[in-house]
Amino acid sequence: MSKIERLGVVGGGQMGGGIAEVGARAGLDVIVCEVSDDAARAARSGLWKSLNRAVQKGKITEAERDETQARLHFTTTVGDLDDRQLVIEAIAEDEGLKLKLFAELDKVVTDPDAILASNTSSIPIAKLAGATGRPDKVLGVHFFNPVPVLKLVELVPSLLTSEDTIARADAFATEQLGKETIRAQDRSGFIVNALLVPYLLSAIRMCEGGFASAEDIDNGMVLGCAHPMGPLKLADMVGLDTVKAIADSMHAEYAEPTYAAPPLLQRMVDAGLKGKKTGKGFYTWE
Ligand code: 3HC
Predict the structure, then answer these.
(1) Alpha helix positions (H), the chain
(2) Which residue minimizes the CA distance to atom 33 of ligand 1?
């Protein structure tokens, strides 16, 4: 099976940046496509910071950092992804934007065997596939934050994804990136978010109702259940706008109250309190 050598990542935020980092560290040539020069600069600076941190932690040498940086390129033109063998979309969790992007990728990516993947958490892969003329080459390849640390990748074929595409994506994630994969059907939230998001929403409802403080809710799960971080801190880290977008997609899919975003989450997003990315959410972040 042919190895992926040229990877494109659309969106250089915390997920896209993390995917680009693990790809480049695994030896791939990576182009990160962002929406503006400022966003591309921010993506580059986030990646350089993360690579410097890896050097400080002794995970890579300075020479390996320099080689990794040389494999990372930045653009604001989707057309620059024309020679990619795999493109992973990691833009905002917005169906309209993603559909537009998949239609554009389908036009510009020339290799008929190229895979067009989405890091979406909750938007139907079948819809994204339908925006292209190659639905057999489209699937969900869902990473977890922080991408360099967490081993899991969920593979999500739609009803039209070919076995060959799934096998190639699996080999890419496991053999090239050193991740572990699980497979889920094309249902909003897949496996992990379908379980995780109702838990995060329950914690927000608990806080909203004044039942306990954010710190006590989080300490309860960290000290009582050995979770690495509590649900409200995790929601802040994922981004409260992202948690809300995933909840909304799952609520649209299943129409069950467990997926309904509580008003507090909505108001915090309205107020720009989106968690770590804006410096304030349930906690204040440096
Ligand atoms: N990039 C690279 N490495 C990082 C990192 C980052 N952003 N953040 C932490 N690390 C590394 C550190 O370097 C450290 O490595 P070391 O043990 O080799 O020195 C290790 O991770 C632990 O980090 P810290 O000591 O700084 O801090 P913690 O022990 O508190 O761990 C954490 C931080 C890894 C974020 C941990 O708290 C954790 O795993 N939390 C849960 C994260 C989680 O549940 N993520 C899933 C979110 S859901 C999702 O992503 C899906 C999406 O669709 C919403």
Answers:
(1) 14-25, 37-56, 62-70, 95-108, 125-130, 163-171, 192-208, 214-225, 231-238, 240-254, 263-270
(2) 228
User: Using one digit for the tens of pLDDT, what is the confidence trace for 220-257?
Assistant: 999 999 999 999 999 999 999 999 999 999 999 999 99
Q: What pLDDT, in 10s, does the model give residues 138-165?
A: 999 999 999 999 999 999 999 999 999 9
Cβ atoms 157, 59 nearer than 8 A: no
Tokens of 268: 């915090």
Question: Is 193 among the catalytic positions?
Answer: yes
**Ligand 1 atom at minimal distance to the Cα of residue 196:** 48
CA distance 163 to 235: 34
Q: Whose CA is nearest to atom 31 of ligand 1?
A: 228
Q: What one-character DSSP code corresponds to residue 173? A: I
Ligand 1, atom 28, lies closest to the CA of: 228
pLDDT at 1 > cutoff 80: no
CB 6 within 8 A of CB 83: yes
Can you tell me which residue has the tokens 């410096």? Answer: 279
Supply the mean pLDDT for the chain: 97
HSE-up of residue 237 (Cα within 13 Å, Cβ side): 12
ipTM of the complex: 0.95
Confidence of residue 286 (pLDDT cuts 50, 70, 90): confident
Which protein residues are within 6 Å of ligand 1, measured from CB? 50, 57, 121, 144-146, 148-150, 193, 196, 228-229, 234, 238, 242
Q: Return the DSSP state at 18.
A: H
Tokens linked to 12: 């250089």
